[in-house]
Structure formats: structure tokens, C-alpha cells
Write a structure and sequence with these properties.
Blueprint (H helix, E strand, L loop, with lengths): L52 E5 L3 H10 L4 E6 L2 H10 L2 E4 L17 E4 L12 H8 L7 E7 L9 E3 L10 H15 L5 E5 L1 E3 L6 H5 L4 E2 L6 E6 H14 L5 E3 L5 E3 H12 L6 E2 L1 H14 L5 E3 L2 H6 L9 H29 L7
């Protein structure tokens, strides 16, 4: 394995098996709980011996999926903003850490925690430059660098009018959110961490389907005006993050997407058909803009077809769900089985209450 492809370094093992929480504060005798490091799940002392450490910043849905896969191979710290999220991190099998990257000062030093970092946190909420990436770097300033992944968005490419787009395509962000993402990418790639960047399109999964949009019958643009969308199943994104943790080259960019490119209307039709909801109506673009609202329009302002060759070739990712149809089938199959199991009981109950059955 080359130097660039070498995985995160394993810890030396000193202090392994201790049950107390590590004191991360630069001030002597500060309690660990005051730093936001919360007790992790009960674990055997042997389980920590020789295991590398991983820090996940912004440990939400994707981070929890990563924990589920890696918790027996890494000692994982999950950084979140609230105590409620910390409970989910602990239940998944990692050690929760409360960290607020919106604090202008007093950011905890967490550089001693791990030499491998996955940054899943979104950008700061406003402005053309991201404020969270530099604060994260300050929080990690105790470290000499290591391996970092930054999960970004394919929105940095801007509107490509349906053209094929790979990692060599120059970024052309068309809104402030995409500008902040590109700013964060640039800062983290240029830092001593030399972060690799994973650019991600629309994420879907069991709890990440546009059901509210379908129920609200928000229209989709007419076929001639519709935008091309790209997707990745949440499980495949988690697995791609893990592959990149070992194989991504420093400061290199990777598109993380499946093999389908669908017009938005086509995607929503397939979701609607799978879950048994009406397909969305079609309307002229001006009407769609009003009905969708400014937040949704951020995700409808770019049309592009993503190439994922680098992901497959360099990260060697083999998708569980290579297209949206496969992913939707896996999501809806358990629901169909559940409904099928309940059907006999429901039918009998209706029959017993029907006057026509009393003949």
C-alpha cells in the first residue's frame, strides 16, 4: 500500500483499558464532563487495546451508520451539538462529545482525540464564507495532522444544464450555500490535514424520502424545463466514507453518487409509485418556484449528470444500491411485508363487522 493510501495510524495503546474519560482541556484539572466529553457505552478494557481512534464531527444519520459498521474496529468519538443527539451516539456504540462550531470563541481543543476525522457537519447558516471549518481547525490545532474527510455537496458545480460532470469540472457555485461549501473545502484541503473531499448529491434512505412534498402535491417542472438529479443511498454514502478513510488521496476530490441520472419528476414519480402516493403534478417553472419556496429551490437550481468513475476506481466502492430503483425496492420491501402480514387480520376484522357477512 502506498503512503497516500495508508489508513489511519493505530494508537500506541498507552492508557488502553482505563475506564475514566480522557481530560482534553488545556487547563489542568478541568473535569472531562465540563469539556463536553460524555461517558461512552460500557466496554471491555480489552476492546480498546490497539484500536485506532476516529472522530466524527456532525454525527447525525450518516455518522451513526458509520459507527454501526466501524465500532468494533475503531474507538469512535461522535461530536454533536445537543445532549439529545449525544444519547443516540452513545446508543450506537461511540463516545459522545458536545461541540458547537458556531461559538466564536472558547472552542474545545480536541486534537488529541484522534488522528482520523470525518467532518459531516453542515456549513454555517449564512454568508459567502464558512465559519465552521476554521473553527474546527482551531479545535484540532493540537494535532499534527492526520487523515481527514470532508463531506461536501455537488452543488459547488453550479448549474451544468444537464452536462456530464466529473471532479475536474471547475466549481461554479450559484448560491451562498454552495459558496460556503467551496470555501470550507478550500480551507480544509489547504490545512495540515490535507482533507480529502467527498462531494455528495441528494441522499435518500428509509427516513429520507420526499414524502411531505408528495403529500402536499408540490408541482414539478414540465419535462422540457425539468432538472437532472443525482442520488446516493445513505448506506452507500456511509460505506463510501469508510472506503475513503483508507484509500482517499490527500486533498483529492471524489464524487459520491450512484449510476442513475434522473429528471426530478422521474425520481418523484418512482418514489410516489413505491409508497402508494399520487404522482406530483407538472407545472411551468414560475409556478414551481412559488410553490416550492426558496429553501427547496436551492436544490433545484442545478442540473448535472455526475460521473462516479473515480469513486469506483480509486476508492474501490461497490454500491449496494447502484440505482434508485434498487434502493427504493429495499426501502419499501419491509413496509410491504409488514402490510401483508397485517392484511389477514384487517380483512377478518372488516368482514366480521360487515352486515353482508351475517347471511
Amino acid at each position: 500500500m502506498s503512503t497516500k493510501e495508508r489508513g489511519p495510524r493505530k494508537s500506541s495503546g498507552s492508557g488502553a483499558g482505563r475506564t475514566r474519560t480522557m481530560n482534553l482541556a488545556p487547563v489542568k484539572a478541568t473535569p472531562a464532563s465540563a469539556l463536553g466529553v460524555l461517558p461512552g457505552p460500557p466496554q471491555s478494557p480489552r476492546r480498546h487495546l490497539g484500536r485506532p481512534r476516529l472522530l466524527i464531527v456532525g454525527c447525525g444519520d450518516i455518522g451513526l451508520r458509520i459507527i454501526t459498521i466501524l465500532r468494533d474496529r475503531f474507538r469512535i468519538f461522535g461530536a454533536v451539538r445537543s445532549q439529545t443527539s449525544a444519547v443516540a451516539v452513545r446508543r450506537a456504540g461511540a463516545i459522545p462529545l458536545v461541540l458547537d462550531l458556531d461559538q466564536a470563541g472558547g472552542i474545545r481543543r480536541i486534537g488529541a482525540l484522534a488522528r482520523a476525522v470525518i467532518a459531516l457537519a453542515p456549513t454555517s447558516p449564512c454568508g459567502r464564507r464558512d465559519a465552521r471549518a476554521p473553527r474546527l481547525l482551531r479545535a484540532l490545532r493540537c494535532a499534527r495532522g492526520g487523515r481527514m474527510l470532508y463531506i461536501s455537496t455537488t452543488g459547488v458545480y453550479g448549474d451544468r444544464r444537464g452536462a456530464w460532470t466529473d471532479e475536474t469540472t471547475p466549481p461554479a457555485p450559484a448560491n451562498e450555500r454552495a459558496l460556503r461549501r467551496l470555501d470550507a473545502e478550500t480551507r480544509l484541503r489547504a490545512s495540515n490535514w490535507r482533507a480529502a473531499v467527498l462531494r455528495v448529491p441528494g441522499i435518500y434512505g428509509p427516513d429520507r424520502l420526499p414524502l411531505d412534498r408528495l403529500r402536499d402535491a408540490i408541482p414539478v417542472a414540465l419535462p422540457a424545463q425539468d432538472v437532472v438529479t443525482n442520488h446516493i443511498h445513505a448506506d452507500d454514502l456511509a460505506r463510501a466514507c469508510i472506503a475513503a478513510l483508507y484509500r482517499a488521496a490527500p486533498a483529492r476530490v471524489y464524487n459520491i453518487a450512484d449510476d442513475t441520472q434522473l429528471f426530478l419528476g422521474e425520481y418523484l414519480d418512482r418514489v410516489a409509485d413505491r409508497v402508494g402516493l399520487p404522482r406530483p403534478p407538472r407545472a411551468p417553472w414560475d409556478q414551481v418556484r412559488i410553490a416550492a419556496g426558496p429553501q427547496r429551490m436551492l436544490f433545484l437550481s442545478g442540473s448535472r449528470r455526475l460521473r462516479n468513475d473515480r469513486m469506483k476506481r480509486e476508492l474501490r466502492v461497490r454500491l449496494l444500491y447502484p440505482d434508485v430503483d434498487a434502493g427504493l425496492a429495499a426501502i419499501t420491501a419491509p413496509r410491504a411485508r409488514q402490510e401483508s402480514a397485517q392484511a389477514p387480520h384487517s380483512t377478518n376484522a372488516q368482514a366480521s363487522n360487515s352486515p353482508s357477512t351475517d347471511r
